[in-house]
Structure formats: structure tokens, C-alpha cells
Amino acid sequence: MLNGTSPIVILVIVANVLFSMKGFDDYTFLDKFKFQVGRVKGDEKIRMLTSGFLHVDWMHLILNMYVLYMFGDMVAHKLGGAYFLIIYFGSLLAGSLYTLHYHKDEPYYSAVGASGAVSGILYASILLVPGMELYLFFIPIPIPGYIFAVGYLLYSIYGMKKQVGNIGHAAHLGGTIGGFAFTLLLTPILFTTNTILVVLLAVPIILLLLFGDKLKSL
Q1: 134 pLDDT exceeds 80?
Q2: Are 33 and 47 in contact (CB under 8 A)?
Q3: What is the pTM (predicted TM-score) of this model?
Q4: C-alpha angle with apex 80: 7 to 1, nearest 5 degrees?
Q5: How far, in Å, CA of 45 to CA of 35, rounded?
Q6: Over the stretch 113-129, which tens digit does the pLDDT of each residue have?
Q7: CA distance 18 to 15
Q8: Distances (CA, A) of 172 to 69, 96, 110
Q9: Where do the domains of the chain lie?
Q10: Which contacts of 23-32 are long-range, i.e. CB under 8 A and separated by 24 or more positions?
Q11: Cα–Cα distance between 136 and 119 in angstroms, integer?
């Protein structure tokens, strides 16, 4: 199954698995490195990075790593391992920054998971392969990647507003913004080759950046 998979992607997956397993067995370790608003606003900025390599359980870990395997390899093969890492870690940090901003008045808000980084990689792959089609559970017809991307973003906005499930929706959104921005910075030719797709994906992101703070008051 891993034949031909980029070694960089495999390395990131292995790192996530090892650190997450350590956190499963050692709550002190998890608590020390998870994202927590109060701690991050203090002198523990490293949590913005380390929290992205921890997960709450096996299902959380497997889902994120499966999506990373499916789409990360696409990005790594299209752009190379170095650019993949820039997008991955840029999206991870963007997810943490957006989470910190949105929950800035909740010092005990905490989160873990690679969802921000994975969301960024997902968006990068859709930008790089505009004809991509995805199959979702229980839906037997393919969904164009750009429709999935917009729907995913809108669901994350709704989830962030309504606090749906035990999910870091703000990290998803921040990671999406990071993946979108870093991919375009690294491959600006997409502005001319995939102009319509770039504009389509940019509109909800721009609206989120302009009006995201108003979500809490709605």
C-alpha cells in the first residue's frame, strides 16, 4: 500500500503515530504538549506545534492519517518534499493561530490533532489537481474537489459557531487558510492556470477573515 509513497509523508505519519501513542498512555505527556489558550498566551508557544502531533484516540488518529496519506502524497509528488513540509507546518501553525484568535477569551480551551495541517494539505491538493473527484461515505457519485472544499469550509464555520462535536473546527479553518495561502505563495502560476478555482475557494476564506469575529455574536 505504501509503495511509491513519498518518504516525507511516511515520516510525518510515523511521527504522528508515535507521539499520539505516547499521549494515549501518558496523560501528563498529553497535558504538557496539548494546545491550551492560557498556556500558549503565556510562555508555552511550542504547544502550537506539538499539539498537532497528538490525538485523543485511535479513531481520531487513523482518520487524520488516512486523509494525510491520500492527499499528502499527491502534494509531495507535485511539489516535492520540502514544499510539502512548508505547507504542512504552515497549515498546522495557521490552524493554531486561528484557534488562539477565535478562543482568545477562553483560557482553558484546549485541543489536539493534526486536523489543521491535514486540512491545509487537502486544500493544497485540490488547488494542484482541480479535476479531482472525491467519494464520500454512503454517496455513490463522485463529488468535484472544489465543491467538497467549499462545503467542508462552510461546515467548519457552522461547527465552530455551534461547537458541534468534540472537534477543533477553528483549527480546520485556520489550516485551510494556511494551506490555501502557502500553496499559492509557493506556486503562483496557479493564479493564471486555475484562476476560476482560486477565486471560488478564496471567496469564503476572505469572508471568514472579514467577518469571522462576528460569528460568536450571531
Answers
A1: no
A2: yes
A3: 0.90
A4: 35
A5: 9
A6: 898 999 999 999 989 98
A7: 5
A8: 17, 9, 14
A9: 7-217
A10: 23/54, 23/55, 23/112, 24/57, 24/58, 30/54, 30/112
A11: 16
Q: What is the signed CA dihedral for 115, 120, 122, 126, rounded to 10 degrees? A: 160
Report the alpha-carbon distance of residue 200 to residue 190 in Å, rounded: 13
How many Å apart are CA 176 and CA 179, to the nearest integer?
5
pLDDT in tens, 161-193: 655 444 567 888 899 999 999 999 999 999 999
Q: What digits encode the pLDDT tens for the residues 9-33?
A: 999 999 999 999 999 999 999 999 9
Superfamily of 7-217 according to CATH: Rhomboid-like (1.20.1540.10)
Altogether, the residues listed in the chain come to a count of 218
Q: Which grid cell sits at 7?
A: 518518504
Residue written as grid cell 478564496? 202
